[in-house]
Request: fold
Amino acid sequence: TERTLSIIKPDATKRNLTGKIVSKFEDAGLRVVASKRIHLSPAQAGAFYAEHAERPFYGELVDFMSSQPVVVQVLEGEGAILKNREVMGATDPAEAAAGTIRKDFAVSKGENSVHGSDSPESAAREIAFFFSGLELV
Ligand code: ATP
Ligand code: MG
Reply:
């Protein structure tokens, strides 16, 4: 079975939506195998999103991701990476399909409630960014 990294973003933790979002993962057959609530520093958020450093929205993204606590989780299941992306919906909530997390909860293209790894390589990197081997069973 595959694993992927999920982040419940500040707009969602602030509105107390963590449980509702986790329910959507579980209803889709994904299992939470690691979870913690942390408050990223701007440097940590910047390092996590380093691939977007040249994008015009990078500064806004780093400020947002370090503005409030987030919940970082490892999700496990068959095809977990793609399945998580399906449950999340499109980046822009206006384009997200019915029933997806971003359709139901996202505020905007920037404040879009969740992050999910987009490939096996990014999943491995992102899981290792937040969790040590001891925290993963
Ligand atoms: P994520 O990587 O968070 O799972 P994604 O893969 O759907 O989302 P990316 O293109 O990787 O989207 O962008 C990373 C994040 O940057 C988005 O989730 C969003 O929070 C923010 N972002 C992307 N495009 C914009 C934009 N045009 N304006 C503001 N913020 C944006
Ligand atoms: Mg992405």
